[in-house]
């Protein structure tokens, strides 16, 4: 909160006194209220801990690991001496569900009630987690700590009481941070229940139609903070922070926070007063207040006391704020004490405060939705869960993960701005399900941007017409199969629930060149369908809003088998799926026998139904069916990914109740499947003799994982041990010389719902001649410079050393796939490179054929294929020569002629500047317009460095040619536009307008390359 003026402070002070808010300072413990005395005593005791004597026992690391951690964190705070950033470790280990964090002093409930005894028993039975740190490193719960229970708002507006707002001339105040309870399933059900009828009769009230949240907060005006999005309920902690150089003193900080503290105490008290004499919350409201100025911190507790009427003040309740601790994080004692106090407060909030809130709500709730009688397990809140977790990892899984991390680091260490090095065994498997039930559908709709909710629901419904029916056990098993993540068995009512589901799988290369395979699912429970349709504002029971009439039920075995097929495959097959960006949806195969059997059963059941039930809405028929993977355009994946990115915060995975997110880092060569993998549209991966492939790609400029390089060498064979630089140099040299390059994209768009463009998937013709930027040559010479090896490739993508003939010339792809969103660039230079490489190959095999003929060996004069009779040309070459329409220059070269015969170089009638931008649709005229006339077009080259030198000269020449053509065309247009006839029929000249010259992209690019490339 920004600093305030002296005048405002004076008004705040007067208003605080008027509303009985008192900052009591260091109040003696004898004057503490009995109901809070034990809690406040624990705080003051923790505020006296000393760093040197804390956690010094011999077994502290194994029995109480959190003590060593908090001591280490305290040392870091002292070293940094900056604004405290609380460590955020999980209270539970995902692997064994035992404690990795525990408060030094644990909160307790007053009295001898059953709840107090249950808490004590739970605390006694807590055991420390002894899993290795590596085994916990991927535990998302450890990363987010207790955020499943608690939420927080930063710089949130707190509405002031109307009377205060009028006198203060402002409606809101904005503390730096507020912590409160999240609306978990327990709390949501209770707040949306009606009040018990007997409570209304006792008070003579008639609020039977109102739900608890309406009774506790009759209107939005009375709520202290906005409840849009992820709700923050019953705030219990306020933080106000100032920099060390701020002109605000402690008194100013207190005054700025006085009324937010009062508002939060009133919110808690409103709940306790609603339960009246039935309340079991004997301690009553309590709000914690942290304040800091730079490295100096203070902790206070605020509570309410019944007072007496006094003149000049409002009401009879006093709001006391008692200072309990102050210290500096520049000292080891102060830093340790602060961390211990934070731990204790959140321990209190979890085990005491939150239970009291739920208990009071349960007293009020009628139980019409079972909220008053059943204690639901709040999804993924393991710190309060009382159920056992069976997902204990074995030592082999931990060892495999440690090996994955170690080997992957070895490859990443070889990365540079010139090129990337990867191994094909490393695959990141990601799983994300949008899991919509009647319980959480409103949370989903309210958590998204309200201006996007209708559009998002329509996008989802557009894909549900081909949905399949899945039950929750199948959805749980799918996640287990894909990422190995085990979730607790669902409660009975959820296990029987059916979901309209769409399942998609995509493979691609991430921005940092890692392989990713995603399984994305949207599962909408039958009971939540109508709510989604309402939010979409589509007409009910029409078009996309109508439930699928024949939604086949996929069997669990068939679904898991299909997933295994998508995971299976050799390293080459897996990498090819990522390069070609394989995208599929899982659909069902219609089974006629199952349909007849199900339909017959449905009719028999209908016959047994009483006549009084015949007016019900028609029942959809669900048929058990098998699964298959079909090609998809990826649009469904984009929708799920938008939701995922919307809720993902930094490195933390989404924690919303309607999302199931997990991941696993696989080593493909260690996975074993007993099924055949699903194939891709491309031919088998073209791997070099050294076991590698080359990939060229582009990435979105805003991708946070974007690599600095657009070229990568992937090792596909052998153990995933990183090569030395000498080995890498040899592998790269061999692959550059003998194999062409795969072309793909890492650009998955921006996940923008309002601008969702079609992203390319299921690519074809990705393997072909690399003609952009000479990136692999730069990569190779960079490594060579580091190791002192000045060798350079003599050719590019030519298997001539191992091929028996040059028949591959006719199958080589000279125009491989290019991202249609990025067409353009140096088109003339790319054409030049392709022309020179193909001319070199043709020349080599024609020379080879002449040598064989001189030795008396019958062979094809073009490709040197062996022939039984000396007939001159093999059938394949003869057939191919008749098919060179678009690239007749290639036919000319094969027949021994010049690519572009002299005397026909000019192509002024062809608008090559605009047409050549569509490189995928090049024609003979465009090749001729861009290449013909270059004086050194037929010059030989000895290696790729010489070819690059020729390329640079050509680029400069092409730039001049393009400028000359533009000037000629522009001059003709000016002459035509700048002349006109006057009123007497005489020709007059109109003053020409200033015209900008074309951008010299090619010359500029060439200059940059010359400056930055250091050839050996």
**Into which percent range does the helicity of residues fall?**
25-40%
Count of helices? Answer: 32
Radius of gyration: 36 Å
Give the CA-based shape.
Answer: elongated
Average residue-wise pLDDT: 79
> How many angstroms separate the termini?
59 Å
Number of E-type strands: 24
Report the sheet with the most strands, covering strand number, pairing sense and barrel closure: 8 strands, mixed
Low-confidence stretches: 82-101, 132-147, 370-394, 609-621, 904-921, 979-1016
**Structural category:** alpha+beta
Task: Please report which band the strand proportion falls in: under 5%, 5-15%, 15-25%, 25-35%, 35-45% or over 45%.
Answer: 15-25%
Structure description:
This protein is an alpha+beta fold and 1016 residues long. It contains 32 helices and 24 strands. Strand 7 and strand 8 (296-306) form a beta hairpin. The chain is elongated and about 120 Å long. It starts with 5 loop residues before the first helix and ends with a helix. Residues 82-101, 132-147, 370-394, 609-621, 904-921 and 979-1016 have low confidence and may be disordered.
Features:
1016 residues; 8-stranded mixed β-sheet; 38% helix; alpha+beta; single chain; disordered C terminus
What's the structural blueprint in terms of helices and strands?
Layout lengths: L5 H13 L2 E5 L11 H10 L13 H4 L1 H16 L33 H11 L8 H4 L3 H5 L5 E5 L3 E2 L2 H7 L3 E2 L3 E6 L2 H7 L5 H7 L8 H5 L15 E11 L7 H26 L11 E7 L2 E11 L10 E12 L3 H33 L30 H18 L7 E4 L2 E11 L4 H7 L2 H13 L5 E4 H12 L8 H4 L2 E12 L5 E11 L3 H8 L16 E2 L1 H12 L3 H9 L3 E7 L2 H17 L15 E8 L3 H13 L11 E9 L24 E7 L12 E5 L9 H14 L2 E5 L21 E2 L6 H13 L39 H28 L20 H7 L6 H7 L17 H4 L8 H8 L12 H34 L1 E3 L5 E3 L11 H12 L4
Helix pairs in contact: 1-12, 2-13, 4-13, 12-13, 16-19, 17-20, 24-25, 26-31, 31-32
